[in-house]
Amino acid sequence: MTHDAILDTIAFDARGLVPAIAQQHDTGEVLMLAWMNREAVAETLATGRVCYFSRSRNRLWRKGESSGQQQRLIELRLDCDGDTVLVLVDQQGVACHTGRRDCFFRAARDGALEEIAAPLVSPDALYGHSHG
Predict the structure, then answer these.
(1) What stretch of H or E contains 54?
(2) What is the pLDDT of residues 75-94, one digit of tens each?
(3) Which residues of this UniProt protein bind Zn(2+) (predicted)?
């Protein structure tokens, strides 16, 4: 199957986006959720480096372009409806802009949100300024 055929199988929403879940390929750790448009998926498949679409910046976002914390594509999968992408990645460093390994560091416990993971690196070190 060609890249175009794969892209044609994806059910992008009305905005031209599809949710993308990033998962560490060898541990199964869910790292983050982001969005991809057709161009981001095409670039990811062509280069092997994961590219997303930033809704806040309204442009392509190559994971790690500011922080150096890149994701190398191991495998791209589609769910049964074709409306969600799973990218199995090799995450270099941390995935979360807060400096944590993954973005899911708050757990609902006893009626409150509890932080269950501390930052491994400061956002200042990642971006050279406060990022939040």
Answers:
(1) strand 51-54
(2) 999 999 999 999 999 999 89
(3) 80, 96, 103
